[in-house]
Amino acid sequence: MATINLAKISTRAPKGLNKEKIKAKTAQLLEELDELQNLLFAESKHSVLVVIQGMDASGKDGVIRNVFGKLNPQGVRAYSFKVPTSLELSHDFLWRVHQQAPPKGMIQLFNRSHYEDILVTRVHKWCDDQQAKARMKAINDFEHLLAHHCNTHILKLYLHVSPQEQQQRLEERIKNPDKQWKYNERDFEEAKLWKVYMKMYQECFTYCNVVPWNIIPADQNWYKEYLIASQLHKLLSSLKMQYPGLKK
Question: What is the pLDDT of residues 158-187, one digit of tens each?
């Protein structure tokens, strides 16, 4: 299997790209996405699951707000996966995830996801390699089930931020009063484990690729949002949806 080397993938937009032109394209995409999402909701034949992964401060919340927040809230749900509760831990690791899978007509956002169970758990050695490989197979089977038996289209996004940009954003959470609510001292400890996280992410991309990953350069929000809006637009446009006629 081909291995993705994150160190060789840029976290920034290509040089020479015009920021204002890209932002104008994003605005146009969002207008068209509003109509496409309405079609998805009205037709109710398909559903979309958007998996958003990334290191702390990679911009997951910003993507939800600035891209998906422009769509009709009746057709979009966001769910943030936190530390499992005692009830969730008493079930298999996908139990709580399957409950959040999108019904037809809906776009479901996972802010972090089932992938945390093969990422943070491995970084902190709460899960050994054998258990992780078993979980990877279960994840592939789960995504295959959604895609082939539930008509769910899965868009997997890894927000690829540089360690320098991450550090700057984490420090901003201390200094900026508008962002202090996001501050968590543990984030700085997790950032020290950067190399281990990158290794685990790369293995995740290699072994959990039944649905391919999109590596999104995330150092510049305007470029990140454009790429994600483009990917979602491409996906929804490919469904060739139509408004249903009068019910008989």
Answer: 999 999 999 999 999 999 998 899 888 889
Domain count, the chain: 1
Tokens of 169: 């954003």
CATH code for position 75: 3.40.50.300
Do 121 and 187 form a contact (C-beta atoms < 8 A)? no
pLDDT 10s digits, 108-163 = 999 999 999 999 999 999 999 999 999 999 999 999 999 999 999 999 999 999 99
Paired tokens of 199: 């290794």
For residue 85, the Cα-to-chain-centroid distance in whole angstroms is: 22
Q: What is the torsion angle, in degrees rounded to the nearest 10, for the CA atoms of residue 53, residue 37, residue 139 and residue 52?
A: 0
Of the candidates 76, 31, 21, 28, the residue with the CA atom closest to the CA atom of residue 52: 76
- CB-based contact 60:115 (threshold 8 Å): no
Determine, yes or no, domain membership for 21: no
pTM of the predicted model, to two decimals? 0.96
